[in-house]
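Researcher: Let's do a round of design. I'm pasting the structure tokens now; please hold your answer until I've finished.
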């Protein structure tokens, strides 16, 4: 497997154990972690929020209180994990970003980040990245 360094430490890498990560998600991640993902994934803030199913008014409330809901935090973690996986597979964050934002034949022409709006879709994106990494691209 290729290794690459992501510009910022992935959100899930900050937790030392899955239990700690689960607690952080249940508590709600900080709004700054949404901003960090937005910077890493290089996507307009409103567009990323929409992919995470956060309306504009809810986004403003989250910004004001500084914390995301557990469901929003879970989705944020999902996108962060996929960005890290794609970066490891392609060896470059710019290539990973491009791949995640453009239609992929292995997903029936769907855009990976659109697919990843659901957990099942995110698993399919993860599976496709695994197949690409092992040379079994379909």
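Researcher: That's everything. Go ahead.
Model: Designed sequence:
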């Amino acid at each position: 497997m290729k290794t690459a360094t992501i510009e910022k430490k992935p959100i899930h890498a900050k937790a030392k154990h899955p239990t700690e990560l689960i607690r952080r998600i249940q508590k709600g991640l900080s709004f700054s972690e949404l901003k960090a993902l937005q910077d890493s994934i290089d996507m307009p803030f409103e567009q990323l929020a929409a992919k995470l199913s956060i309306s504009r008014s809810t986004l403003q409330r989250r910004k004001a209180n500084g914390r995301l809901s557990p469901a929003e935090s879970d989705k944020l973690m999902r996108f962060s994990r996929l960005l890290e996986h794609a970066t490891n597979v392609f060896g470059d964050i710019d290539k990973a970003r491009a791949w995640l934002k453009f239609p992929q034949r292995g997903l029936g022409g769907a855009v990976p980040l659109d697919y990843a709006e659901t957990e099942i879709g995110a698993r399919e994106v993860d599976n496709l990245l695994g197949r690409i990494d092992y040379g079994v691209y379909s």
